[in-house]
Design goal:
about 120 residues; mainly alpha; 3 helices
Amino acid sequence: MTFPEHPAARIKAVEDALEQARRDHDAFRDTVRDRIIQAHRNGDICLDGMNDGLRDLGLPEYVAGWKGTVTLTVEVCVTGTNCDDTARQWAKDALELSSQDDDVRIDHVDRYAEEFTEADEEDV
């Protein structure tokens, strides 16, 4: 690599080359990590062995995760109102969802109040 004669131009050229080298290095590390993870997914490397190798290379460990949707139907009984729209809203507002498991994170909850009909006395 050749650099310009002027000191300021030389400094700028060296800084640009250093920045490009950093980008190339980061891209290389990403590629290495992706290939190691793909080898694990292909069954060529166990999870512990893969993460040991990633740690040895100073790369972030791989954490497997699954994303999906769970549908939960909850039967509720609401008292204190004669209006089904109010009962529906109160039921939606009263329900909270949380996880006591560190391996389960709840990202988003949609609250839908389906059909509300007048309850029989024995249900209240």
